[in-house]
Amino acid sequence: MALVRRALFRIKIAREGTVRRGSEVASCSITELTTKGMGLSTDLRATQGDQLDVTFALTDEESICCQILVTHVMPPCLGGRITSIAPAHESQLARFIDQHISTTLSPL
Predict the structure, then answer these.
(1) Dist CA 1 CA 88 (whole Å)
(2) CA 16, CA 29: separation in Å to the nearest integer?
(3) Is the CB of residue 54 less than 8 Å from the CB of residue 17?
(4) Range 48-69 burial, b when 16+ CB lie within 10 A, else e
(5) pTM for the complete prediction?
(6) H/E segment holding residue 12
(7) C-beta separation of 41 from 16 below 8 A
(8) pLDDT at position 38
């Protein structure tokens, strides 16, 4: 089995939000984040291939709204690839991750 390297830096976070599939809405906790996807925990039952709308507070001043395609499920956790996000939210997300990486990896 070949080792597959991730192209993106994944950060661990703890952010509360909501997840929606059609008329079903549930709370969620965002646990991992990249500029292209996320991991979250929720009571909403989802299966691989589902499209979900996710909204969460990235910071006290900034919220992110996006749509993800569920790529893996291990209840109550799931992961997904961001398939739709507004350009402003995409910029906020990239800036947040860059700042997080630079402060986490900078020498003391």
Answers:
(1) 39
(2) 5
(3) yes
(4) eebebebebebeeeeebebebe
(5) 0.85
(6) strand 11-21
(7) no
(8) 96
